[in-house]
Amino acid sequence: MHMSALRDPIIQQAGSASPRLTLSGISKSFPGVRALHDVSLSLYPGQVTALVGENGAGKSTLVKILTGIYQPDAGEISIGGQAVTLPSAHAAFKHGITAIHQETVLFDDLSVAENIFLGHAPKTRFGTIDWRTMRSQAREVLDTMGAKHIDADTRLRDLGIANKHLVAVARAMSIDAQIVIMDEPTAALSAKEIEELFLLIEFLKSDGKAILFISHKFDEIYRIADRCTVFRDGELVGEGLLAEIGQDQLVRMMVGRSVDRIFPNREAAIGEPVLSVSGLSHPTEFDNIGFELRKGEILGFYGLVGAGRSEVMQAVAGITRTSRGTMALEGRTIAPKSAADAIEAGIVYVPEERGRQGVVIGLPIFQNVSLPSLACTSKSGVLRLAEEFSLARKYVERLDLRASSLSQDVGTLSGGNQQKVVIAKWLATTPKVIILDEPTKGIDIGSKAAVHGFMAELVAQGLSVIMVSSELPEILGMSDRVIVMREGRIAALYDNNNLDAERLVRAAAGIAG
């Protein structure tokens, strides 16, 4: 189908300013995967363009083309009306393109000033680095941005994530970058830090920068962006002024279908207690944790960052050791001393950090899924490939995994699809209890719907689920009961019956009422 036929008819290109950067007819393929096909993008000075799309829509590939990491197979890149090529990251940098990623690549052991001027430090007439000028220029850039609180001589490792973002922006300012790419910049920030970042984006806009903003959070997109470009399955499906696009229309374009109900309707058939935890304590992380998880139940754990939820789950899953407390699974006392003990007992933990803890990059999808279940897919110590494939297919198909084949390297999948592989891997062990830690963090609305639908299916089959989530709609939409944690303790337990977000936030923050 030709691009114009796919383009959403309601959205019109608007505005008379000339774009600072234009991509046209960009295509990029990898073995077995067509990442981008004939896409276009325009970035305008003093405006934020949101790039929106499900995981696997081609957003990351586009960013890598813009920053010189990938070369397009076809198409043209223009900056200021002139065609350019970006054969390397350095070339993109020289053309005034800078990216601030979810995990910005800076150097922890260097000072703030050194990070800002790395690769373009001011020199003395003898050709050596002019340290005094570099420090004063770094202070000047930070002051201009309203970041006076950051000391130019501080080592980067001593700064928090939000301040590291500010240093990355200061670096962009120091080279007078005209095009700033922000890829999920708020993913690891608190609400206060997000507000500060938005003020900074307004400053960059007023300075005439053209900004590409990639986020899964609709409230952020509508708050900060002027325009939006929508990708689906590597193709452009819509672009235009955000003021003319409703959220429902944006969702429909992203997923190619109307998402009427984000959360599945389900009739909970809750049975007897499966897991009982009593007096569980850790010397520094949590104290006196007690709860029951029942058969066919989704038990939500809510709390603010640092409340100790993940730490409790890692103890239940045998990953960390407790100082005291008892656990029983189906009436039998258990004391797992390792993750393997917990898995054998029937408890599995799907971590939040899927890239670091969840998948093995470099291995194909089918081997990632079958890894904890090798006893089922081998005979007399010999792996049976057909059985590995069969096991993997059974679970990834149920999760609507987007991949070219089960032999595809997990490292080439989008974040949402990696999360599905992790969930499939642990479900293949046929557990009694599955702990999902932030199961949909950083994944798009379509993948979220698939994960939520699958969770509903699991509990309908009698599995018991603990879901740790910081997303209030997810907690309220999926949980049968909700435990709120604060500062390492259980602050409240609610039946999810006309429960509202305000009560949860108050309990999590320790506000009476």
In words, what does this structure look like?
By secondary structure, the chain is of the alpha/beta class. It has three domains: 171 residues, 3-Layer(aba) Sandwich (Rossmann fold), CATH 3.40.50.300; 70 residues, no CATH class; 233 residues, P-loop containing nucleotide triphosphate hydrolases (Rossmann fold). 33% of the residues lie in helices and 24% in strands. It contains 18 helices and 22 strands. The strands form five sheets. The chain has a six-stranded mixed beta sheet, sandwiched between helices. β1 and β2 form a beta hairpin. α5 packs across α6. The longest helix is centred in the middle third of the chain and has 16 residues. The protein is globular. The chain starts with a helix and ends with a helix. The N terminus is likely disordered.
